[in-house]
Amino acid sequence: MDFRLLGEIEVRSAGRPLDVGTPRQQVVLAALVVDARKPIALEALVDRVWDHDPPASARPVLYAHLSRIRGLLRQAAAPGGGTTARIERRHAGYVLDVDPELVDLHRFRRLVEQGADRQRDDEARAAALAEALGLWRGEPLAGLSGEWAAQIRASCHRRRLDAVVWWAQAEFRLGRPTAVISAVPDLTAEYPLAEPLECVLIQALHAAGRGAEALDRYGVVRRRLAEELGADPGEELRSVYQTVLRGDPPPPGEAGAALRTVRPGPLRSRAAASPPAVAHRWADPVSVGGGASVGAPSGVGARTPARTTAPRPGSTGTPSSPEVPLGHLDAAAIDTSSSRQRVRTTRRRALLAVLVTVALPAAAGSVHVLRRDESNGPQAASVELARELFAAAEAFDQEGRARDARATVMDAVRLWDELVGLDPDRNGPPLAPAVLRALGRAGVDFSVLRPALLSWLGDPVHTPYPAISQVILLRGWRFTAPVLLDAVVWNYEHTPEVTSPRDVADVHTDVLKAAVLENTRTRHGTQVTEFDQLLRP
Q: CA-CA distance, 500 to 366, in Å (whole number)?
Protein backbone atom coordinates (compact mmCIF):
# COMPACT_ATOMS: atom_id res chain seq x y z
CA MET A 1 0.00 0.00 0.00
CA ASP A 2 1.18 3.53 -0.68
CA PHE A 3 -0.33 7.00 -0.54
CA ARG A 4 0.32 9.65 -3.19
CA LEU A 5 -0.35 13.34 -2.57
CA LEU A 6 2.08 14.96 -5.02
CA GLY A 7 -0.47 15.09 -7.79
CA GLU A 8 -4.00 13.74 -7.70
CA ILE A 9 -4.64 11.87 -4.45
CA GLU A 10 -4.13 8.15 -4.88
CA VAL A 11 -4.15 5.10 -2.62
CA ARG A 12 -2.51 2.18 -4.37
CA SER A 13 -2.55 -1.45 -3.41
CA ALA A 14 -0.58 -4.14 -5.24
CA GLY A 15 0.19 -1.56 -7.93
CA ARG A 16 -3.42 -0.59 -8.66
CA PRO A 17 -5.25 2.60 -7.63
CA LEU A 18 -8.33 2.40 -5.42
CA ASP A 19 -11.39 4.63 -5.38
CA VAL A 20 -10.65 7.44 -2.90
CA GLY A 21 -14.19 8.84 -2.97
CA THR A 22 -15.54 12.35 -3.30
CA PRO A 23 -13.38 15.50 -3.09
CA ARG A 24 -14.65 16.10 0.46
CA GLN A 25 -13.62 12.59 1.48
CA GLN A 26 -10.25 13.14 -0.20
CA VAL A 27 -9.68 16.23 1.96
CA VAL A 28 -10.37 14.15 5.10
CA LEU A 29 -7.96 11.47 3.87
CA ALA A 30 -5.29 14.03 2.95
CA ALA A 31 -5.64 15.74 6.33
CA LEU A 32 -4.86 12.43 8.05
CA VAL A 33 -2.06 11.40 5.68
CA VAL A 34 -0.21 14.73 5.81
CA ASP A 35 0.05 14.34 9.61
CA ALA A 36 0.57 10.58 9.61
CA ARG A 37 1.12 9.16 13.11
CA LYS A 38 0.18 12.50 14.68
CA PRO A 39 -3.17 13.03 16.44
CA ILE A 40 -5.48 15.58 14.85
CA ALA A 41 -8.25 17.02 16.98
CA LEU A 42 -11.77 16.66 15.65
CA GLU A 43 -12.15 20.45 15.51
CA ALA A 44 -8.96 20.72 13.45
CA LEU A 45 -10.26 18.13 10.99
CA VAL A 46 -13.50 20.05 10.66
CA ASP A 47 -11.59 23.28 9.99
CA ARG A 48 -9.42 21.65 7.34
CA VAL A 49 -12.44 20.25 5.54
CA TRP A 50 -14.81 23.25 5.77
CA ASP A 51 -12.43 26.23 6.11
CA HIS A 52 -13.59 27.36 9.55
CA ASP A 53 -17.22 27.56 8.34
CA PRO A 54 -18.67 24.10 8.97
CA PRO A 55 -22.33 23.19 8.46
CA ALA A 56 -24.48 22.14 11.40
CA SER A 57 -24.10 18.51 10.33
CA ALA A 58 -20.29 18.67 10.10
CA ARG A 59 -19.55 16.05 12.76
CA PRO A 60 -21.93 13.36 11.48
CA VAL A 61 -20.66 13.92 7.93
CA LEU A 62 -17.06 13.70 9.13
CA TYR A 63 -17.78 10.45 11.00
CA ALA A 64 -19.27 9.01 7.80
CA HIS A 65 -16.14 9.96 5.81
CA LEU A 66 -13.89 8.39 8.45
CA SER A 67 -15.92 5.19 8.31
CA ARG A 68 -15.58 4.98 4.52
CA ILE A 69 -11.83 5.69 4.73
CA ARG A 70 -11.47 2.83 7.21
CA GLY A 71 -13.14 0.59 4.64
CA LEU A 72 -10.74 1.86 1.97
CA LEU A 73 -7.74 1.03 4.17
CA ARG A 74 -9.06 -2.48 4.81
CA GLN A 75 -9.52 -2.94 1.07
CA ALA A 76 -5.97 -1.73 0.41
CA ALA A 77 -4.53 -4.15 2.98
CA ALA A 78 -6.44 -7.21 1.74
CA PRO A 79 -4.12 -8.23 -1.14
CA GLY A 80 -1.14 -8.27 1.20
CA GLY A 81 -2.86 -10.27 3.89
CA GLY A 82 -2.38 -7.76 6.71
CA THR A 83 -3.23 -4.31 7.99
CA THR A 84 -0.63 -1.71 7.05
CA ALA A 85 -2.62 1.43 7.91
CA ARG A 86 -5.49 2.14 10.27
CA ILE A 87 -7.31 5.08 11.82
CA GLU A 88 -7.30 5.19 15.61
CA ARG A 89 -9.35 7.36 17.94
CA ARG A 90 -7.17 8.66 20.76
CA HIS A 91 -7.67 11.17 23.52
CA ALA A 92 -5.91 13.92 21.53
CA GLY A 93 -7.80 13.18 18.29
CA TYR A 94 -7.72 10.91 15.24
CA VAL A 95 -4.46 9.32 14.10
CA LEU A 96 -3.62 7.59 10.84
CA ASP A 97 -1.16 4.91 11.90
CA VAL A 98 0.90 4.35 8.77
CA ASP A 99 4.60 4.18 7.98
CA PRO A 100 5.53 7.65 6.62
CA GLU A 101 7.73 5.93 4.04
CA LEU A 102 4.51 4.76 2.37
CA VAL A 103 3.54 8.41 1.71
CA ASP A 104 5.21 10.21 -1.20
CA LEU A 105 4.96 13.61 0.52
CA HIS A 106 6.84 12.37 3.60
CA ARG A 107 9.48 10.68 1.46
CA PHE A 108 9.82 13.90 -0.52
CA ARG A 109 10.36 15.94 2.65
CA ARG A 110 12.90 13.46 4.05
CA LEU A 111 14.90 13.42 0.82
CA VAL A 112 14.92 17.21 0.57
CA GLU A 113 16.24 17.40 4.14
CA GLN A 114 19.00 14.96 3.19
CA GLY A 115 19.84 17.07 0.17
CA ALA A 116 20.13 20.16 2.38
CA ASP A 117 22.46 18.42 4.84
CA ARG A 118 25.93 19.92 4.38
CA GLN A 119 27.48 17.00 6.25
CA ARG A 120 26.76 14.77 3.25
CA ASP A 121 28.97 14.74 0.16
CA ASP A 122 27.72 16.31 -3.04
CA GLU A 123 27.05 12.99 -4.77
CA ALA A 124 24.75 11.88 -1.95
CA ARG A 125 23.02 15.26 -1.80
CA ALA A 126 22.46 15.39 -5.55
CA ALA A 127 21.12 11.83 -5.58
CA ALA A 128 18.71 12.48 -2.70
CA LEU A 129 17.40 15.67 -4.29
CA ALA A 130 17.02 14.03 -7.70
CA GLU A 131 15.01 11.23 -6.09
CA ALA A 132 12.84 13.76 -4.28
CA LEU A 133 12.12 15.68 -7.48
CA GLY A 134 11.27 12.41 -9.23
CA LEU A 135 8.35 11.90 -6.83
CA TRP A 136 6.59 15.00 -8.17
CA ARG A 137 3.64 13.98 -10.39
CA GLY A 138 1.83 17.30 -10.67
CA GLU A 139 -0.04 19.85 -8.59
CA PRO A 140 -0.10 18.54 -4.98
CA LEU A 141 -3.59 17.66 -3.73
CA ALA A 142 -4.85 18.35 -7.24
CA GLY A 143 -8.54 19.12 -7.43
CA LEU A 144 -8.98 19.85 -3.73
CA SER A 145 -10.24 23.28 -2.72
CA GLY A 146 -9.99 25.13 0.55
CA GLU A 147 -7.52 27.18 2.54
CA TRP A 148 -5.76 24.22 4.18
CA ALA A 149 -5.17 22.42 0.87
CA ALA A 150 -3.85 25.66 -0.64
CA GLN A 151 -1.37 26.05 2.22
CA ILE A 152 -0.09 22.50 1.76
CA ARG A 153 0.34 23.14 -1.98
CA ALA A 154 2.27 26.35 -1.30
CA SER A 155 4.59 24.52 1.09
CA CYS A 156 5.20 21.76 -1.45
CA HIS A 157 6.05 24.21 -4.22
CA ARG A 158 8.50 26.06 -2.00
CA ARG A 159 10.23 22.82 -1.03
CA ARG A 160 10.36 21.81 -4.67
CA LEU A 161 12.07 25.07 -5.64
CA ASP A 162 14.48 24.65 -2.72
CA ALA A 163 15.29 21.15 -3.94
CA VAL A 164 15.94 22.26 -7.51
CA VAL A 165 18.32 25.05 -6.45
CA TRP A 166 20.23 22.79 -4.04
CA TRP A 167 20.43 20.01 -6.63
CA ALA A 168 21.78 22.44 -9.23
CA GLN A 169 24.40 23.73 -6.79
CA ALA A 170 25.57 20.18 -6.07
CA GLU A 171 25.77 19.47 -9.79
CA PHE A 172 27.88 22.63 -10.29
CA ARG A 173 30.36 21.50 -7.67
CA LEU A 174 30.50 18.05 -9.27
CA GLY A 175 31.36 19.64 -12.60
CA ARG A 176 28.07 18.70 -14.33
CA PRO A 177 26.49 21.95 -15.57
CA THR A 178 24.95 20.19 -18.60
CA ALA A 179 22.65 18.24 -16.25
CA VAL A 180 21.31 21.56 -14.96
CA ILE A 181 20.90 22.92 -18.49
CA SER A 182 18.85 19.84 -19.41
CA ALA A 183 16.53 19.88 -16.39
CA VAL A 184 15.95 23.46 -15.27
CA PRO A 185 14.37 25.04 -18.41
CA ASP A 186 11.22 22.94 -18.00
CA LEU A 187 10.85 24.22 -14.45
CA THR A 188 11.43 27.85 -15.45
CA ALA A 189 8.47 27.44 -17.79
CA GLU A 190 6.34 26.34 -14.82
CA TYR A 191 7.69 29.09 -12.54
CA PRO A 192 8.44 31.92 -14.97
CA LEU A 193 9.07 34.50 -12.23
CA ALA A 194 11.21 32.37 -9.90
CA GLU A 195 14.55 34.15 -10.08
CA PRO A 196 16.57 31.49 -8.20
CA LEU A 197 15.86 29.06 -11.04
CA GLU A 198 17.02 31.61 -13.59
CA CYS A 199 20.16 32.20 -11.51
CA VAL A 200 21.19 28.55 -11.59
CA LEU A 201 20.34 28.21 -15.28
CA ILE A 202 22.42 31.26 -16.24
CA GLN A 203 25.26 30.00 -14.05
CA ALA A 204 25.08 26.59 -15.73
CA LEU A 205 25.19 28.11 -19.22
CA HIS A 206 28.17 30.21 -18.19
CA ALA A 207 29.96 27.21 -16.63
CA ALA A 208 29.36 25.22 -19.82
CA GLY A 209 31.10 27.89 -21.90
CA ARG A 210 27.84 29.23 -23.35
CA GLY A 211 28.24 32.81 -22.17
CA ALA A 212 26.32 34.38 -25.05
CA GLU A 213 23.29 32.21 -24.27
CA ALA A 214 23.60 33.14 -20.60
CA LEU A 215 23.49 36.86 -21.46
CA ASP A 216 20.54 36.32 -23.79
CA ARG A 217 18.74 34.45 -21.01
CA TYR A 218 19.26 37.35 -18.62
CA GLY A 219 17.78 39.73 -21.17
CA VAL A 220 14.70 37.52 -21.55
CA VAL A 221 14.21 37.34 -17.79
CA ARG A 222 14.68 41.06 -17.32
CA ARG A 223 12.06 41.87 -19.97
CA ARG A 224 9.64 39.34 -18.47
CA LEU A 225 9.97 40.86 -15.01
CA ALA A 226 9.49 44.36 -16.40
CA GLU A 227 6.44 43.42 -18.47
CA GLU A 228 4.66 41.21 -15.93
CA LEU A 229 5.68 42.79 -12.63
CA GLY A 230 6.99 46.21 -13.45
CA ALA A 231 10.16 45.26 -11.57
CA ASP A 232 13.89 44.85 -12.12
CA PRO A 233 15.95 41.69 -11.50
CA GLY A 234 16.99 41.14 -7.90
CA GLU A 235 20.45 41.51 -6.41
CA GLU A 236 21.42 37.85 -6.85
CA LEU A 237 20.43 37.72 -10.51
CA ARG A 238 22.21 40.99 -11.25
CA SER A 239 25.34 39.65 -9.55
CA VAL A 240 25.27 36.50 -11.69
CA TYR A 241 24.80 38.66 -14.79
CA GLN A 242 27.82 40.78 -13.87
CA THR A 243 29.93 37.61 -13.44
CA VAL A 244 28.99 36.45 -16.95
CA LEU A 245 29.45 39.92 -18.43
CA ARG A 246 32.99 40.20 -17.04
CA GLY A 247 33.82 36.66 -18.10
CA ASP A 248 34.77 35.68 -14.55
CA PRO A 249 34.77 31.98 -13.68
CA PRO A 250 31.56 30.77 -12.01
CA PRO A 251 31.74 31.00 -8.19
CA PRO A 252 32.45 27.67 -6.48
CA GLY A 253 30.19 28.35 -3.50
CA GLU A 254 26.48 28.14 -2.87
CA ALA A 255 25.24 30.78 -5.29
CA GLY A 256 21.47 30.92 -5.56
CA ALA A 257 20.76 30.07 -1.92
CA ALA A 258 17.62 28.64 -0.36
CA LEU A 259 14.19 30.08 -0.88
CA ARG A 260 12.29 31.57 1.99
CA THR A 261 8.77 32.76 2.65
CA VAL A 262 7.59 35.91 4.37
CA ARG A 263 3.86 35.48 3.99
CA PRO A 264 1.50 32.55 3.57
CA GLY A 265 -0.53 32.05 0.46
CA PRO A 266 -1.28 29.62 -2.35
CA LEU A 267 1.66 28.98 -4.64
CA ARG A 268 0.90 27.07 -7.82
CA SER A 269 2.90 26.21 -10.86
CA ARG A 270 1.92 27.40 -14.31
CA ALA A 271 1.03 23.81 -15.13
CA ALA A 272 -1.78 23.86 -12.56
CA ALA A 273 -5.38 24.06 -13.66
CA SER A 274 -6.01 27.18 -11.59
CA PRO A 275 -4.42 30.56 -12.33
CA PRO A 276 -0.78 30.70 -11.21
CA ALA A 277 0.57 32.67 -8.30
CA VAL A 278 4.16 31.88 -9.12
CA ALA A 279 7.13 31.97 -6.79
CA HIS A 280 9.24 35.07 -7.05
CA ARG A 281 11.24 37.27 -4.76
CA TRP A 282 8.48 39.63 -3.52
CA ALA A 283 5.61 39.28 -1.11
CA ASP A 284 3.43 40.80 -3.78
CA PRO A 285 3.59 40.59 -7.59
CA VAL A 286 4.64 44.25 -7.82
CA SER A 287 7.84 45.58 -6.31
CA VAL A 288 10.67 47.99 -6.86
CA GLY A 289 14.05 47.14 -5.40
CA GLY A 290 15.23 43.94 -3.76
CA GLY A 291 12.32 42.85 -1.57
CA ALA A 292 12.35 39.21 -0.50
CA SER A 293 9.45 36.81 -0.44
CA VAL A 294 8.38 33.49 -1.82
CA GLY A 295 11.20 32.20 -3.97
CA ALA A 296 13.71 34.78 -2.86
CA PRO A 297 17.38 33.83 -2.61
CA SER A 298 18.65 34.32 0.90
CA GLY A 299 20.60 37.51 1.28
CA VAL A 300 18.21 39.55 -0.85
CA GLY A 301 16.32 41.54 1.72
CA ALA A 302 13.57 44.09 1.49
CA ARG A 303 13.86 47.51 3.05
CA THR A 304 12.51 47.34 6.58
CA PRO A 305 9.44 49.58 6.61
CA ALA A 306 8.28 51.48 9.66
CA ARG A 307 5.44 49.61 11.34
CA THR A 308 3.71 52.57 12.87
CA THR A 309 -0.04 52.89 12.67
CA ALA A 310 -1.13 55.00 9.71
CA PRO A 311 -3.13 58.11 10.54
CA ARG A 312 -6.68 58.18 9.26
CA PRO A 313 -7.81 60.92 6.88
CA GLY A 314 -8.66 63.97 8.91
CA SER A 315 -7.20 62.63 12.17
CA THR A 316 -4.98 64.67 14.44
CA GLY A 317 -2.17 62.19 13.86
CA THR A 318 -1.83 63.14 10.21
CA PRO A 319 1.78 64.01 9.43
CA SER A 320 2.23 67.58 8.43
CA SER A 321 4.36 69.12 5.76
CA PRO A 322 4.24 72.52 4.10
CA GLU A 323 1.85 72.89 1.20
CA VAL A 324 3.74 72.53 -2.02
CA PRO A 325 3.51 74.96 -4.93
CA LEU A 326 2.74 73.25 -8.19
CA GLY A 327 6.17 73.87 -9.72
CA HIS A 328 6.00 71.29 -12.49
CA LEU A 329 5.47 70.92 -16.21
CA ASP A 330 1.83 71.56 -17.03
CA ALA A 331 0.88 68.85 -19.52
CA ALA A 332 -2.00 70.94 -20.84
CA ALA A 333 0.55 73.46 -22.10
CA ILE A 334 2.79 70.92 -23.83
CA ASP A 335 1.76 71.73 -27.37
CA THR A 336 4.60 73.84 -28.70
CA SER A 337 7.52 72.45 -30.64
CA SER A 338 9.97 73.38 -27.86
CA SER A 339 7.83 71.59 -25.28
CA ARG A 340 7.56 68.53 -27.49
CA GLN A 341 11.33 68.58 -27.86
CA ARG A 342 11.64 68.66 -24.06
CA VAL A 343 9.33 65.66 -23.78
CA ARG A 344 11.44 63.74 -26.31
CA THR A 345 14.59 64.69 -24.41
CA THR A 346 13.05 63.58 -21.13
CA ARG A 347 12.03 60.26 -22.66
CA ARG A 348 15.57 59.74 -23.95
CA ARG A 349 16.83 60.33 -20.42
CA ALA A 350 14.37 57.74 -19.15
CA LEU A 351 15.54 55.20 -21.71
CA LEU A 352 19.14 56.01 -20.85
CA ALA A 353 18.35 55.42 -17.19
CA VAL A 354 16.95 52.00 -17.99
CA LEU A 355 19.92 51.09 -20.19
CA VAL A 356 22.46 52.22 -17.60
CA THR A 357 20.64 50.36 -14.84
CA VAL A 358 20.59 47.14 -16.87
CA ALA A 359 24.04 47.27 -18.43
CA LEU A 360 26.02 48.61 -15.48
CA PRO A 361 24.19 47.86 -12.21
CA ALA A 362 26.19 49.10 -9.24
CA ALA A 363 27.26 46.51 -6.72
CA ALA A 364 26.20 48.71 -3.82
CA GLY A 365 22.72 49.53 -5.11
CA SER A 366 20.75 51.11 -7.91
CA VAL A 367 22.35 53.44 -10.40
CA HIS A 368 21.02 56.98 -10.08
CA VAL A 369 20.75 59.03 -13.25
CA LEU A 370 21.49 62.62 -12.22
CA ARG A 371 21.97 65.81 -14.16
CA ARG A 372 25.26 67.32 -13.05
CA ASP A 373 24.55 70.89 -14.15
CA GLU A 374 21.95 71.50 -11.45
CA SER A 375 22.94 74.19 -8.97
CA ASN A 376 21.02 72.59 -6.11
CA GLY A 377 22.98 69.35 -6.22
CA PRO A 378 22.37 65.87 -7.62
CA GLN A 379 19.45 64.98 -5.34
CA ALA A 380 17.52 68.09 -6.36
CA ALA A 381 18.27 67.23 -9.98
CA SER A 382 16.76 63.77 -9.45
CA VAL A 383 13.58 65.29 -8.02
CA GLU A 384 13.31 67.51 -11.07
CA LEU A 385 13.93 64.54 -13.36
CA ALA A 386 11.17 62.57 -11.64
CA ARG A 387 8.76 65.48 -12.10
CA GLU A 388 9.70 65.74 -15.76
CA LEU A 389 9.13 62.02 -16.22
CA PHE A 390 5.66 62.28 -14.72
CA ALA A 391 4.92 65.24 -17.01
CA ALA A 392 6.25 63.39 -20.05
CA ALA A 393 4.03 60.42 -19.24
CA GLU A 394 1.06 62.78 -19.07
CA ALA A 395 1.94 64.18 -22.49
CA PHE A 396 2.29 60.71 -23.98
CA ASP A 397 -1.08 59.81 -22.51
CA GLN A 398 -2.71 62.83 -24.14
CA GLU A 399 -1.16 61.84 -27.48
CA GLY A 400 -2.65 58.36 -27.17
CA ARG A 401 0.74 56.68 -26.78
CA ALA A 402 -0.29 54.35 -24.00
CA ARG A 403 2.79 52.12 -24.12
CA ASP A 404 5.21 55.06 -23.88
CA ALA A 405 3.09 56.62 -21.16
CA ARG A 406 3.13 53.51 -19.00
CA ALA A 407 6.87 52.93 -19.48
CA THR A 408 7.59 56.53 -18.48
CA VAL A 409 5.30 56.32 -15.44
CA MET A 410 7.16 53.21 -14.33
CA ASP A 411 10.48 55.08 -14.64
CA ALA A 412 9.04 58.00 -12.68
CA VAL A 413 7.59 55.82 -9.93
CA ARG A 414 10.85 53.92 -9.49
CA LEU A 415 12.76 57.18 -9.16
CA TRP A 416 10.09 58.52 -6.76
CA ASP A 417 10.46 55.38 -4.63
CA GLU A 418 14.24 55.77 -4.46
CA LEU A 419 14.02 59.46 -3.61
CA VAL A 420 11.52 59.10 -0.77
CA GLY A 421 13.61 56.22 0.52
CA LEU A 422 16.65 58.50 0.68
CA ASP A 423 15.01 61.60 2.15
CA PRO A 424 11.19 61.56 2.42
CA ASP A 425 10.89 65.01 4.02
CA ARG A 426 12.89 66.68 1.28
CA ASN A 427 11.93 64.65 -1.78
CA GLY A 428 8.35 63.52 -1.12
CA PRO A 429 6.39 66.82 -1.07
CA PRO A 430 7.73 68.22 -4.39
CA LEU A 431 6.66 65.05 -6.19
CA ALA A 432 3.23 64.70 -4.60
CA PRO A 433 1.34 66.96 -7.08
CA ALA A 434 2.70 65.05 -10.08
CA VAL A 435 1.78 61.76 -8.41
CA LEU A 436 -1.72 63.07 -7.76
CA ARG A 437 -2.22 63.91 -11.45
CA ALA A 438 -0.90 60.48 -12.50
CA LEU A 439 -3.40 58.85 -10.15
CA GLY A 440 -6.16 61.05 -11.58
CA ARG A 441 -5.41 59.82 -15.11
CA ALA A 442 -5.70 56.27 -13.77
CA GLY A 443 -9.21 57.00 -12.47
CA VAL A 444 -8.26 57.47 -8.82
CA ASP A 445 -10.18 60.16 -6.94
CA PHE A 446 -10.13 61.44 -3.38
CA SER A 447 -12.53 63.08 -0.94
CA VAL A 448 -10.14 64.57 1.61
CA LEU A 449 -8.72 68.07 1.37
CA ARG A 450 -6.01 68.43 -1.25
CA PRO A 451 -3.31 69.77 1.13
CA ALA A 452 -3.78 66.73 3.40
CA LEU A 453 -3.62 64.32 0.48
CA LEU A 454 -0.46 65.97 -0.86
CA SER A 455 1.07 65.62 2.58
CA TRP A 456 0.21 61.93 2.81
CA LEU A 457 1.47 61.16 -0.71
CA GLY A 458 4.83 62.66 0.20
CA ASP A 459 5.22 60.76 3.48
CA PRO A 460 5.95 57.02 3.14
CA VAL A 461 7.20 56.78 6.74
CA HIS A 462 3.87 57.44 8.45
CA THR A 463 1.21 56.67 5.83
CA PRO A 464 0.53 53.85 3.38
CA TYR A 465 -0.52 56.27 0.63
CA PRO A 466 2.80 56.25 -1.30
CA ALA A 467 3.15 52.45 -1.25
CA ILE A 468 -0.44 51.82 -2.38
CA SER A 469 -0.25 54.58 -5.00
CA GLN A 470 3.00 53.15 -6.38
CA VAL A 471 1.39 49.73 -6.79
CA ILE A 472 -1.58 51.22 -8.65
CA LEU A 473 0.70 53.11 -11.04
CA LEU A 474 3.20 50.28 -11.54
CA ARG A 475 0.43 47.81 -12.33
CA GLY A 476 -0.92 50.19 -14.96
CA TRP A 477 -4.48 50.01 -13.59
CA ARG A 478 -6.93 52.44 -15.18
CA PHE A 479 -10.38 52.32 -13.65
CA THR A 480 -13.67 52.70 -15.52
CA ALA A 481 -15.25 54.62 -12.61
CA PRO A 482 -13.51 56.94 -10.13
CA VAL A 483 -12.05 55.10 -7.16
CA LEU A 484 -11.60 56.97 -3.88
CA LEU A 485 -8.00 56.59 -2.79
CA ASP A 486 -8.68 57.38 0.87
CA ALA A 487 -11.56 54.86 0.99
CA VAL A 488 -9.39 52.19 -0.61
CA VAL A 489 -6.64 52.80 1.96
CA TRP A 490 -9.18 52.61 4.77
CA ASN A 491 -10.60 49.33 3.41
CA TYR A 492 -7.11 47.92 2.98
CA GLU A 493 -6.04 48.73 6.53
CA HIS A 494 -9.24 47.28 8.00
CA THR A 495 -8.65 43.89 6.38
CA PRO A 496 -8.04 41.37 9.21
CA GLU A 497 -4.43 40.32 9.79
CA VAL A 498 -3.06 42.82 7.27
CA THR A 499 -0.30 45.23 8.26
CA SER A 500 -0.42 48.80 7.02
CA PRO A 501 2.21 48.98 4.24
CA ARG A 502 5.09 51.42 4.17
CA ASP A 503 6.87 49.90 1.19
CA VAL A 504 5.75 48.55 -2.18
CA ALA A 505 6.95 45.08 -1.22
CA ASP A 506 4.52 45.11 1.72
CA VAL A 507 1.40 45.66 -0.39
CA HIS A 508 -0.65 42.50 -0.95
CA THR A 509 -2.23 42.90 -4.37
CA ASP A 510 -5.14 40.58 -3.62
CA VAL A 511 -6.04 42.66 -0.54
CA LEU A 512 -5.71 45.89 -2.54
CA LYS A 513 -7.99 44.56 -5.26
CA ALA A 514 -10.58 43.57 -2.66
CA ALA A 515 -10.34 47.05 -1.13
CA VAL A 516 -11.01 48.65 -4.54
CA LEU A 517 -13.97 46.32 -5.17
CA GLU A 518 -15.47 47.18 -1.80
CA ASN A 519 -15.09 50.88 -2.57
CA THR A 520 -16.93 50.60 -5.89
CA ARG A 521 -19.77 48.63 -4.30
CA THR A 522 -20.14 51.21 -1.53
CA ARG A 523 -19.73 54.29 -3.71
CA HIS A 524 -21.38 53.27 -6.97
CA GLY A 525 -23.53 50.33 -5.89
CA THR A 526 -21.97 48.11 -8.52
CA GLN A 527 -22.45 44.37 -8.50
CA VAL A 528 -19.02 43.71 -9.98
CA THR A 529 -17.41 40.61 -8.49
CA GLU A 530 -14.18 40.48 -10.50
CA PHE A 531 -11.52 43.17 -10.20
CA ASP A 532 -10.64 43.05 -13.90
CA GLN A 533 -14.18 44.20 -14.72
CA LEU A 534 -13.28 47.58 -13.20
CA LEU A 535 -10.36 48.14 -15.55
CA ARG A 536 -10.39 49.85 -18.91
CA PRO A 537 -9.48 47.51 -21.76
A: 26
